[in-house]
Design brief:
Strand content: 15-25%
Order of helices and strands: HHEEEHEHH
Structural class: alpha+beta
CATH architecture: 3-Layer(aba) Sandwich
Distance between the termini: 26 Å
Shape: globular
Radius of gyration: 13 Å
CATH superfamily: VSR Endonuclease
CATH topology: Endonuclease, Chain A
Number of domains: 1
Number of strands: 4
Helix content: 40-55%
Number of helices: 5
Strand order of the largest sheet: 1-2-3-4
Mean pLDDT: 87
Amino acid sequence: MVRMKRVLGLDAFTDTGLERRFLELVRAAGLPLPEAQVTLNGYRVDFYWPELRLVVETDGWRHHRTSGEQSTDRRRDQTHMMSGLTTVRFGEDQIRYEPEYVRRTLAAVITRL
């Protein structure tokens, strides 16, 4: 089902407007579409490119602002890193106000991987 939605370009598995906005940036950049809301290493991730072993997390202002939430995010990233995954985080301000920077950064990471 995830692959079918991916092929069709449907975003039914995104949870937030921020995630939908991120997917719009991915499409606009002509980059391959990721899988959304995949569980890896016991954590649900926002976006995953399995062929690249790339995870992207979109950090909204509401759920990633306290030191406890940020500590959980770091532990999650470190767990993924230990299993050979690359994690990139984009904040809500970057996705909303610096979309070209997000596109360039993501394209560079995808090219490197």
